[in-house]
Amino acid sequence: MKIFIDTANLNEIKEANAMGLLDGVTTNPSLVAKEGKEFRQLLDEIHKNIVVKVPLIKEGLKAVKTFTAEGIKTNVTLCFSASQAVLAAKAGASYISPFVGRLDDISADGMELISQIVQIYNNYAFNTEVLVASVRHPLHFVDACLIGADVCTIPFKVIESLFNHPLTDIGLQKFLADHKKSAK
Ligand code: E4P
What we know:
The structure is a single chain. The protein is an alpha/beta fold. The protein has one domain: Aldolase class I (TIM Barrel, Alpha-Beta Barrel), CATH 3.20.20.70. The chain contains ten helices and seven strands. It has a seven-stranded parallel sheet with strand order 2-1-7-6-5-4-3. The longest helix has 17 residues. It starts with a strand and ends with a helix. The protein binds erythose-4-phosphate (E4P). The site of erythose-4-phosphate (E4P) has 11 residues, from helix 6.
């Protein structure tokens, strides 16, 4: 499971990278707009190896075909159905980004879509990697791991929440208190 951070904030990228868990970064125009910086300049600051994000529309998939033929990697975004995901894979996309949170928001099952895409891609040995996007909470991450998705892109706050468990905190306090009893 590769972990990407979903942000355009340089401090969040640096902090997540310092945790030693980060395999990449995804961003989008809405995240960049929050930073109040010029788009191209910010992208230059974030990435050395840029994968081009392409929307899942007809013209987008034509562009994917051209990019792929030129050896340029693509991430097909705004995927909300298994049929869209099949088309992206046939076009040669490097990554497909199904948005699980936005599906959950409209009472659809985002993780069910991930299961379908993983199964279909396995059935036909497509090389396109399944990148779980629009992740809102730790269970999305756990479910993505259980299903066997390739990548999960996660907002900084959710990455931080992956570390937390109340029993870890309680256990640590107890160990520290007991250590004081035997330490000089
Ligand atoms: C994916 O790369 C997108 O940037 C992102 O996951 C969208 O998530 P949202 O639904 O929280 O905006």
